[in-house]
Specification:
Elements: H1 8-22, H2 24-83
Length: about 80
């Protein structure tokens, strides 16, 4: 039993018929075109993920910067209270 009730022999017969109809050169170019399309899709998806993560990184770094400045200001205010 193969895929969905199709045996391996039936799949081989289908493969031979496809090879006879289209030829090896056409199938090779079809395969390379399909591979390039998948590669382009993956790179587009990874670029989209990077773009989605970029605003989060900017928010985190700005939050860290404002948090650090508040701590410095708070420490300076504490010293001034001690002096008074």
């Amino acid at each position: 039993m193969g895929l969905g009730g199709i045996s391996i022999w039936q799949l081989l017969i289908i493969l031979v018929i496809v090879l006879l109809l289209f030829g090896t050169k056409r199938l090779k170019s079809l395969g390379s075109d399909l591979g390039n399309a998948v590669k382009g899709f993956r790179s587009a998806m990874s670029e989209a993920d990077k773009e989605d993560q970029e605003p989060k990184r900017l928010e985190e770094t700005s939050a860290q910067r404002t948090g650090a400045s508040v701590e410095v200001d708070g420490a300076a205010a504490g010293k001034e209270k001690d002096k008074v």
